[in-house]
Amino acid sequence: MTFPAKSTLLKSKRGLKAWRHGRYAEAACLLRLWLTGWRVIGHRLAGKRGTGIGEVDIVAARGNILAFIEVKARASTADALESIQAQQRARIQAAAAAFLARHPQFAHLTVRFDAMISGGILWPKHVPDAWRLS
């Protein structure tokens, strides 16, 4: 697990609370995926700084599907999906392409972009096919 820089944490208690809430949301989503038969390939995968390749929260496989999953901690599904803007989707898609280039053993799987929403509900909600390649 990667922790934010100490100076970032000291700047804002609110920022620390948000960071902790996000890590909790990711852990709950990982648990839900595992319990529902998904094989987690990786999580918190990030490209090099300055490349335009974003971070993928979770990469998981089940059957013939390879899902790149964005985790959002929001009160409602609509708010969570709305918060995944076009620029963020493009960075995640670039990270997915880079992941597949480095791991050709997954190239035969159907790629899908999902979202998982944590917050306001007891168990994270999995939204399959939250967006399509653009």
In CATH terms, what is the architecture?
3-Layer(aba) Sandwich
The amount of beta strand, in percent, is: 25-35%
Helix proportion: 25-40%
Q: How many individual β-strands?
A: 5
- Per the CATH scheme, the topology name is Trna Endonuclease, Chain: A, domain 1
Uncertain runs are: none
Strand order of the largest sheet: 1-2-3-4-5
CATH class: Alpha Beta
What is the number of domains?
1
User: Between the first and last Cα atoms, what is the distance in angstroms?
Assistant: 30 Å
Q: How many helix segments?
A: 4
Task: Please sum up the structure shown.
By secondary structure, the protein is of the alpha+beta class. It contains four helices and five strands. A hairpin with a 6-residue loop joins strand 4 and strand 5 (125-131).
Tags for this model:
5 strands; alpha+beta; globular; 134 residues; 4 helices; Trna Endonuclease, Chain: A, domain 1; five-stranded mixed β-sheet
Word description of this protein:
- This protein is of the alpha+beta class and 134 residues long.
- The protein has a single domain (6-131), classed as Trna Endonuclease, Chain: A, domain 1 (3-Layer(aba) Sandwich), CATH 3.40.1350.
- It contains four helices and five strands, in the order H-H-E-E-E-H-H-E-E.
- The protein has helices at residues 6-11, 13-35, 77-82, 86-102; strands at residues 39-45, 56-62, 65-73, 110-118, 125-131.
- The protein has a five-stranded mixed β-sheet with strand order 1-2-3-4-5, with helices on both faces.
- It starts with 5 loop residues before the first helix and ends with a strand.
